[in-house]
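In response to reviewer comment 3 from the previous cycle, which asked for concrete evidence that the modeling workflow produces usable outputs, we include below a single protein chain processed end to end. The sequence was submitted unchanged, and the resulting structure tokens are shown without manual editing.
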Amino acid sequence: MGLCWCPPASSSDSKERIARLASALRRFNFEVLIVPSQRPEAISAATSLVDVAAKELQWELELSTLPCQAGLDEKSLQDAYHSVYTDRCVAAEQSCLLLLSNREEAWSWLSTFTNWFLGKEPLELSDEEQIWLAVELNGFTLAGSSPGLKLRSKTSEMRAAVT
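The workflow returned the following structure tokens.
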């Protein structure tokens, strides 16, 4: 299961970003691209990624949306992850990638995602860097992430607070 930020393809720069993102994510063999938001810019970004993946990488992705739009509060995000994990990843045995088209939303989702699946929190990235992360669900381990993404263990943070 994975998560990524993908801006809508409105310029040649964003099209290049989408191509780099697709290339980085291809090795994880995601089958379903899930868009939590049904806003036009989110659907546009997802469609662009699906098109690039198919044309340039011969990688077919099924495009899907969440049945209801999740808010950005911790509970809504955890409910969304639980739904995708149980309904798609476990029950349907599909490898899923969540796509967010807004960088701030992607960061909120990433923070909850890394906490929920890995017990870690992401450290800030520069605005230039891509946001993506893949988790191996068999052992809840990090399978890969954008090169600049660093994660801090929640347990080491708690130990430091206790001492």
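Strands lie at 2-5, 32-35, 62-65, 96-100, 120-122, 132-136, 141-145, 151-153. We consider this sufficient to address the reviewer's concern, and the full set will be provided in the supplementary archive.
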